[in-house]
User: Fold this.
Amino acid sequence: MRNLIIIAIVIIVGLVLLRQSLYVVDVTEQVIILRFGEVVKTRLAPGLDVKAPFVDTVVRLDKRVLRIDAPPVSMPDQDKENLVIDIYARYRITDPVQFRKTLQTEGNARSRLGDIVTSTLRDRVALRDRTDIIGARPLVDEFGVPVVDDEGLPLVEAQETRTEILDEVLLEVQRITGDNPDTTQREDFGVRMIDVRIKRADFPEAVTASIYTRMRAERNRIAAGFRAEGEEEDRKIRAATDRDRDIILAEAQQQSNRIRGEGEAEAISLLAGALNRDPELFAFLRSLEAYQRIIQGQDTIILSSDSPLFDYLAAPTAPARSGN
Assistant:
């Protein structure tokens, strides 16, 4: 029983020593071995390795591309107008020993490098105007008049000024961090700055209200222009429609008068023909029409005895008088 206990203790101690002696380096990591605070070994390749148990400490650092998200900062441009600029940068740890000596941890690296990037960008922004920082400028014609689209909004064209600013910032940050061999370095941080980018460049909150007011005024101006164009087009359409209506009515009236005249001429021609063929019958019919119009109901008519109306009443077969 005692031997079993001794064997168990030996196995446990062996496992503890083995666990303390072996460590695994992941493919995304680089490892520094510290002994009493001093670097005794670095391991960059992935795999299994050994160290002194209970004495050596494993410090793991990421060897992938790391990102720095700096907080948005208000920066004055060349015209002393502030812009809130939100930036990010990317870097990689190239010398873990120097990184451990200067920055120590990735958290400290994000803070220190973020401050350097922000400070450098502020210096470059102060030398440029807003158009260069935004990276676009309004289009103008040969007379210097801004070019607008169909909705009345100004057209802009992209330019490389923002890229130039960021390239200058990246070179300066590389010089400060000791990553640019072409310049005199200030301090070697053991990192390589890969990229610096602007996520957003906006106006401060203090001037947001005035910007929105100006935007609303601009939209109202565009809307007023659209309404004026619509009213002008409405007047044109109404005038053209009224003109077409008057033309159609005039042509219809002309055609009506022509048809009416042709009908009356045809009627007169027919009456004349009928009169020429049988004047007695025509005179008799006209007398009947006259009787029908004059003698109605209980009307009383007083006429002279020699009135032409009595010709057919007195003697129906008598010829009509001339002038009937």
User: Anything to note?
Assistant: The first helix runs from residue 2 to 21.
